[in-house]
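Moderator note: this is an archived Q&A kept for reference. The question asked for a predicted structure of one protein chain; the sequence and the answer are reproduced below.
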Amino acid sequence: MPHRIAALALLTTAAIVSWAMPPGAAQTIRRQSPAATTPDPAPRRTPWGDPDLQGTFSNGDEYTTPLERPDQLAGRRLEDIKGQELADLRRAQMRQVIDGLPGGRVRGPDGWWVENMDAGRGAQAWLVIDPPDGKIPALTAAARGRGAGRVRSSFLGGPFDGPEDLGLLDRCISRGVPGSMIPVMYGNVYGIAQVPGYVVITYEIIHEARVIPLDGRPHLGPKIRQHMGDARGHWEGSTLVVETTNFTSAAAYRGANATTLRVTERFTRVARDTIKWTATLDDPETWTRPWTLAMTLTAEAQPVMAFECHEGNYGMRNILSAARAEDKAR
């Protein structure tokens, strides 16, 4: 119980700091690139002896990085694409992302959000590291029969018959796991804090927090499901291993089966200002084999900002009211 109280107190303190930020700060403050990676002469430890992962980290430079290996790079190894070739590739990827937006640049000059994309701070050409071909494994027969269902997002133009026709992000609810780690245009910042027996991760987008127990307790029963799943952590040497199950169907990543999906994340501090993160997705009802994506988290000088989503979420109300007005006009 004292550990649980300590974890909750830590979360409360973090929330107070975030709430003190100006409204919309996460959307408007431009982040600065941290210094180059600094070797860590010895693994850091918390006062109670656990590996120390604490700090504020970002992976915003990976916004335009494709999940899978681009077809034009077939046969190439991820580690061999670097330097000027990588910088040129990332600029081309940014142009593809912007050109692919519905309505083109209607959302503004997106280059502002990705200005550090070629800074070389752990940058990579794609995210899937296993299978070796950099491609997500084929769907199982069960997944093909189940179908992916309609993608729900305000960016796809409807129909908008009710709130359920907008995605969980549109509705300021959740980005799920590992969705909360996948870079978007802004807000790719994560706060990691520790107390004895717990690791707490706060995500800037949606401002969700995961309280991850380390005491070996079993997962929740199958009837209890959460958008961020049910996380359980343990240490393997200096690596934090987090296994998450019990997802909701609405939040299961890439249309996976919520009852069989297991996401295993690994956080390893490889330098004083760098954490290597991987996530392995295992769902025998969706993919023919497990697959893994990876990226680097780098130290961030600014704190996790307030994400004023519900407070300023006029989009959903306006989208639905406009759709009703269109219905009446027909």
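Archived answer notes: The two ends are 60 Å apart (CA to CA).
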